[in-house]
Design a protein that fits this description.
By secondary structure, this protein is of the alpha+beta class. The strands form 12 sheets. It has a 4-stranded antiparallel beta sheet, with no helix packed on it. A 4-stranded antiparallel beta sheet has the order 4-5-6-7, with no helix packed on it. It has a 4-stranded antiparallel beta sheet with strand order 8-9-10-11, with no helix packed on it. One of its GO terms (cellular component) is GATOR2 complex.
């Protein structure tokens, strides 16, 4: 693994030389720091705290700071920093909330100097002032930052960010009194150490926790931040409002960021999880790393440039229990393997294609795409810069537009707003969602909801409400199929006709007695008239029927009882037909008078299937009519995967919630979490906050349900003195004024309170709404819009 390239750098009186090398550690490292003269490096972790000498050929262990038979938790380090002014001074952040300083000049084996235990939770970061020897700053999981004077036994200032835990603190390299702090709620705050009561500036830097920040060593106003949103952003802090000037998209959460010495636009990053590599980016080209170090086999936890004026050596520690010195000359250059063509879809479906100009011009058969101005190629050309480190290539970007109407997402918003995911029986939820999809012209989704209702509902409840059923002794027979008696049209062929012949009799299967049935034998009234909505029930069976098994139909005009004989059928059946009772009288209309029916055609009857109405019952079914829900689970699982792969995570998540435990165990937790996160992200992009919160609440994934349980603490400032409210009443303990006074009626607001985040004035919701109808200015008279 060792590479034999060597570099020698002259820095004043010091000379740095070496090669790419590594050494094995006793335990995983959490942080590393290098001394001022770049000759030693300290490695700290939960079970390691050692100092190594950086020699030309190898690392040499110089000192083990974990002494004693049973080292205390003060040796369990989350962060470490070596003072750049005092070569014998170290500081560590302990996982038990302690801040410890170490004096390497002490003659005893135990080098611990001072111990500060003012933090209540884990300390995430410690930072020495770049020019002040005795000033130490710490940031903790408890949300507080403390400034220590090492000549005293306690902190001299406490800074409360009124926010979630502090993940990083960094003193400015150019402004003596300024430091930056990053928080888990996505905010970055700038503080003046002389004013611990209130931050100087605050802005939202990332969506999610901000894990790290670093001031530029040369440019006074540049601050780099990295967060869980996989972004590295560079902010210009010299303006009145923090301005994002560069943004780098990485492939994983950013855990550490460090500016490269002597290179204004270069910075190094490492990931908190998944990605083990170290990347050096040129922020002017954020789409591909400038250089990559791929030596580590596990997550990189700490990176530091060996010398503050040397850009050629980078040190790193990792969870794979190795310490590396990377030489920049040995780094991998991803641009050498990069694809020179690019293809990307825009937000509204536009397709952009970029390629070398020589490739585009060589295609003589290429024709311009017809259409509007957006479809014409856009040419980008940049003048050659002798200081540019990138290869100059002239490229052509073609943008092909699409019809905006065909890519509208109105259906997504309407579906999210109208879908019902809970609160009603399963069948009603499926029917409602199917209706919503049908009204939005999404027949496939509508059919899917209908099929889910059929698969997982109780068969006894499948019939649509409002239909008349036969309440006979055979009413408990299983539902097998549905038919309706419909009038025969002129266009129907002989294949659809069932002729009843009275000349043929099957006496061997018939056991009917005249007294068992009331039949109207008027052949002219055996069928419905055209347009009739009447329906008839027919019972077929393959066994003998007793008198009790037959049902009687009573009508207003009963004629004399006659024996009814079933003729042979016109089409083959799977089982033998035994009997067929006569149709009810209200279906026996005068068909002979119809212009479409004449002669024997009056005796023709057509059976047409219709949905959800039982007409045929099997007295002795040949198979079990009810399949368990588990039988359909593999099919449903494949269906959900299909919808998710097609990009319709809305359907996948909605079905997952509605089916609940019926299907949840069939899909692994990681897949479910991915679907939920994708759907919630889409909902929040469309500002469907209520729907998003409902989906989070109905989820059973622990990683999802905790999303609406974070950042629930609301910190309130007094509208008079602008200071934080520390008590629970309506009176500020600093200025002794009522903090929640309505700016319209000037009474104390004891219920719902709405306020402006810019000027902190507010009042009763109804009063403020009425005021804003007539004026855009703050009702308190402060002039804020």
């Amino acid at each position: 693994m060792e590479k034999m390239s060597r570099v020698t750098t002259a820095l004043g009186s010091n000379t740095i030389s070496g090669r790419t090398m590594f050494c094995h550690l006793d335990a995983p490292a959490n942080a590393i720091s290098v001394c001022r003269d770049a000759t030693q490096v300290v490695v700290a972790g939960r079970n390691i705290f050692k100092i190594y000498a950086l020699e030309e050929e190898q690392f040499v262990e110089k000192l083990n700071l974990r002494v004693g038979r049973k080292p205390s938790l003060n040796f369990s380090c989350a962060d470490v920093m070596w003072h750049q002014m005092e070569e014998n001074l170290l500081a560590t952040a302990a996982t038990n909330g302690a801040v410890v300083t170490w004096n390497l000049g002490k003659p005893s084996r135990n080098k611990q100097d001072q111990l500060f235990t003012e933090h209540k939770r884990t300390v995430n970061k410690v930072c020495f002032h770049p020019t002040e020897v005795y000033m130490l700053l710490s940031g903790s999981q408890d949300g507080f930052m403390k400034c220590f004077d090492l000549r005293k036994k306690e902190s001299v200032s406490t800074f409360s960010g009124q926010s979630e835990s502090v993940r990083d603190v960094q003193f400015s390299m150019k402004d003596y009194f300024t430091f930056a702090a990053s928080f888990e709620n996505g905010n970055v705050q700038l503080w003046d150490i002389r004013r611990p009561d209130r931050y100087e500036r605050m802005f939202t830097a990332h969506t999610g926790p901000v894990f790290c920040c670093d001031w530029h060593p040369d440019d006074r106003g540049w601050l780099a931040t990295g967060g869980r949103d996989k972004m590295v952003k560079v902010w210009d802090m010299t303006t009145n409002k923090a301005k994002e000037i560069y943004c780098v998209q990485t492939i994983a959460s950013v855990a550490r960021v460090k500016w490269r010495p002597e290179r204004k636009h270069h910075l190094a990053t490492c990931s908190m999880m998944v990605d083990h590599n170290i990347y050096v980016w040129d922020v002017r080209r954020p789409f591909i790393p400038f250089a990559t170090f791929e030596e580590h086999k596990d997550v990189t936890t700490g990176i530091v440039w060996r010398h503050q004026h040397d850009p050629h050596f980078l040190l790193s520690g990792s969870k794979d229990s190795t310490l590396y010195q990377h030489m920049f000359k040995d780094a991998t250059r991803p641009v050498d393997k990069a694809n020179p063509e690019g293809l990307c879809f825009g937000l509204f479906g536009d397709l952009a294609f970029a390629a070398k100009e020589s490739l585009i011009n060589s295609d003589a058969n290429r024709k311009p795409y017809p259409g509007g101005d957006r479809r014409y190629p856009i040419f980008f050309f940049k003048k050659a810069d002798p200081t540019e480190q990138f290869t100059h290539v002239s490229s052509v970007l073609n943008v092909f537009g699409t019809d905006l109407e065909s890519n509208r997402m109105d259906w997504f918003v309407r579906t999210a707003q109208l879908y019902l995911l809970s609160g009603k029986p399963f069948a009603e939820l499926c029917d409602h969602n199917a209706k919503v999809a049908r009204e939005l012209k999404r027949p496939r989704v509508s059919t899917t909801w209908t099929m889910l209702r059929i698969m997982f509902s109780d068969p006894a409840n499948l019939t649509a409400p409002g239909l008349n059923h036969s309440h006979s002794k055979l009413g408990n027979l299983p539902l097998m199929n549905s038919f309706s008696m419909k009038d025969m049209g002129t266009g129907m062929g002989a294949e659809g006709r069932l002729e009843r012949s009275k000349g043929e009799l099957r006496q061997d299967n018939m056991h009917l007695e005249p007294g068992n049935l009331h039949i109207n034998n008027n052949n002219e009234e055996n069928e419905e008239t055209e347009g009739s909505e009447g329906q008839a029930e027919y019972m077929f069976g393959d066994a003998e029927l007793d008198d009790d098994d037959l049902y009687s139909m009573e009508h207003d005009n009963q004629m004399e009882e006659q024996e009814y004989i079933l003729p042979p059928e016109a089409f083959p059946l799977r089982h033998e037909i035994i009997d067929n009772p006569s149709a009810p009288e209200h279906l026996q209309q005068d068909k002979a008078d119809s212009p479409h029916v004449s002669g024997n055609e009056a005796e023709v009857m057509c059976l047409t299937p219709i949905e959800s109405f039982s007409l045929i019952s099997i007295s002795q079914p040949l198979f079990s009519p009810h399949l368990p829900a588990s039988f359909f689970c593999p099919i449903v699982r494949e269906m959900l995967s299909y919808y998710a792969e097609q990009g319709d995570v809305q359907m996948a998540v909605s079905v997952l919630i509605v089916l609940g435990d019926r299907i949840r165990k069939e899909i692994d937790d990681l897949t479910q979490e991915h679907w939920y996160m994708s759907y919630i992200d889409l909902l929040q992009r469309f500002e469907l906050w209520n729907v998003s919160n409902e989906v989070i609440k109905l989820s059973t994934c622990s990683a999802i349900t905790c999303l609406n349980q974070t950042s629930t603490t609301l910190h309130i400032n007094c509208s008079s003195c602008k200071r934080a409210m520390s008590n629970k009443g309506w009176i500020c303990n600093k200025c002794h004024q009522c903090a929640s006074v309505c700016a319209v009626c000037h009474h104390v607001v004891k219920g719902l309170f709405v306020w402006c985040q810019g000027c902190s004035h507010g009042g009763h919701l109804e009063h403020i709404m009425n005021w804003l109808k007539i004026s855009a200015h703050c009702p308190a008279g402060c002039g804020h819009l």
